[in-house]
């Protein structure tokens, strides 16, 4: 009968030894001389001892060899990583997040271009007013058009003075607020572009449709007809007085559709509300009150038709909201289904806003300390990043 036993070492790698022991059988031939007797079915100590000794020695030798092989592989792997990092150390850089200053570049030269655009359209408006004035029909021939607001509201002589005073206050407040804005270059070119665009629209509407004066009280300067020199002097006088009745520079008629005073009152309030802190709700309400009062008093003074004021309000608010919707929503700029990109001024918008990657935050700083204090933190971060890259 054959008996098999497995002798297993306690090491991780087992050593197997199979021993076959034959018992004496009368009918079987005598065992070979090399066989060893077995008592009670167990291996004899004389046979087990040398075999176990050889198994333990082989297992320990195999374990030591495996450990040495593992240590050798680990050392080779560490060496490869070390040499690889050493060889490519110039390409290992720490990713530093882009600073807000990079996402909101100043680009004052673009602000200068927008300023020239606004200045040109304002000057062009005075020229158009001079030409339109020559086409205004006489009050005796063409009386004022019927207006529903004038039917219910009698004219108040001093009302238009309130309008111009409110407009000057709003413009002054916005100018001071703009000076203290940190990102005044971006906001400034937006303001200049919208002013230029709205007054260009006004030139078109004034020129294609000339309305009669809205009231008998209006005094218009005499027509010059072919006197080119006199027209140039009127243009210069209108520019010097800012086109205001307070300064006595606006004595020409015909610039009715649409109202330029409505444009300035509405646009100044929109910029003040857009770029002022939300906690200053009382400041925004005060500016809204000045704007609304000034617009209403245009009609109370019978200086414009109601349609002039309504069209001026709608054109100003819609152009402002469309521009700032595209400016504050970066995903809209390249979206294929963005219908706002079909406006004629979309290429100009892309030129002005190409590098502005996020909405402009409402942050204030001292205008005099702008070159040193407001940019010191960003310059230090950039210098530190540059030194780490080197």
TrEMBL record:
Q: Output the Gene Ontology terms for molecular function.
A: ceramide cholinephosphotransferase activity; sphingomyelin synthase activity
As for membrane topology, the entry says: Multi-pass membrane protein
> What Pfam families is this protein classified in?
PAP2_C
Q: What is its main location?
A: membrane
Keywords (alphabetical) are:
Lipid metabolism, Membrane, Sphingolipid metabolism, Transferase, Transmembrane, Transmembrane helix
Q: Which InterPro entries match?
A: Sphingomyelin_synth-like, Sphingomyelin_synth-like_dom
Task: Please verify whether the record's keywords include Lipid metabolism.
Answer: yes
Q: Which reaction does it catalyse?
A: an N-acylsphing-4-enine + a 1,2-diacyl-sn-glycero-3-phosphoethanolamine = an N-acylsphing-4-enine 1-phosphoethanolamine + a 1,2-diacyl-sn-glycerol
- What Gene Ontology terms for biological process does this UniProt record contain? ceramide biosynthetic process; sphingomyelin biosynthetic process
Which residue intervals define the domain Sphingomyelin synthase-like in the entry? Answer: 252-325
Where does it sit, as one GO cellular component term?
endoplasmic reticulum membrane
Q: Where is this region: Disordered?
A: 20-71
Spell out the Basic and acidic residues composition-biased ranges: 57-71
Transmembrane residues, as ranges?
108-132, 158-180, 192-209, 256-273, 280-299
Query: Mind telling me which PANTHER family this protein's record contains?
Result: PHOSPHATIDYLCHOLINE:CERAMIDE CHOLINEPHOSPHOTRANSFERASE 2, SPHINGOMYELIN SYNTHETASE
Protein family (similarity comment): Belongs to the sphingomyelin synthase family.
What is the name of the protein in this document? Phosphatidylcholine:ceramide cholinephosphotransferase 2
Task: Say which species the protein is native to.
Answer: Merluccius polli (Benguela hake)
What lineage is on file? Eukaryota, Metazoa, Chordata, Craniata, Vertebrata
Gene field = Sgms2_2
């Amino acid at each position: 009968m054959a008996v098999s036993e497995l002798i297993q070492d306690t090491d991780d790698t087992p050593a197997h030894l199979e021993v076959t022991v034959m018992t004496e059988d009368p009918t079987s031939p005598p065992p070979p001389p090399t066989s060893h007797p077995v008592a009670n079915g167990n291996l004899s100590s004389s046979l087990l001892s040398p075999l176990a000794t050889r198994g333990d020695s082989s297992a320990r030798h195999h374990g030591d060899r495996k450990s040495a092989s593992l240590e050798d592989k680990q050392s080779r792997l560490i060496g490869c990583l070390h040499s690889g990092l050493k060889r490519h150390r110039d390409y290992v850089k720490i990713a530093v997040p882009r600073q807000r200053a990079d996402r909101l570049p100043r680009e004052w030269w673009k602000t200068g271009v927008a300023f020239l655009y606004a200045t040109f359209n304002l000057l062009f408006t005075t020229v158009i007013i001079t030409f339109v004035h020559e086409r205004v029909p006489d009050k005796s021939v063409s009386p004022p058009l019927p207006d529903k607001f004038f039917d219910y509201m009698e004219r108040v002589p001093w009302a238009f003075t309130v309008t111009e005073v409110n407009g000057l206050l709003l413009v002054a407040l916005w100018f001071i607020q703009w000076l203290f804005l940190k990102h005044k270059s971006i906001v400034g070119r937006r303001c200049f572009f919208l002013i230029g665009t709205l007054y260009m629209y006004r030139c078109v509407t004034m020129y294609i449709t000339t309305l009669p004066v809205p009231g008998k009280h209006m005094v218009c300067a005499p027509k010059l007809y072919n006197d080119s020199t006199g027209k140039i002097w009127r243009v210069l006088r209108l520019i010097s007085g800012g086109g205001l009745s307070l300064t006595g520079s606006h004595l020409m008629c015909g610039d009715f559709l649409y109202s330029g005073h409505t444009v300035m009152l509405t646009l100044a309030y929109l910029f003040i509300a857009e770029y002022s802190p939300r906690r200053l709700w009382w400041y925004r309400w005060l500016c809204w009150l000045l704007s609304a009062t000034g617009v209403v008093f245009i009609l109370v003074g019978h200086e414009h038709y109601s349609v002039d004021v309504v069209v001026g309000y709608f054109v100003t608010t819609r152009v402002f909201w469309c521009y700032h919707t595209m400016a504050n929503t970066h995903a809209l700029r390249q979206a294929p289904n963005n219908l706002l990109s079909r406006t004629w001024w979309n290429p100009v918008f892309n030129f002005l806003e190409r590098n502005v990657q996020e909405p402009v935050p409402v942050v204030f700083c001292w205008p005099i300390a702008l070159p040193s204090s407001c940019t010191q933190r960003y310059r230090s971060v950039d210098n530190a990043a540059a030194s780490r890259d080197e």
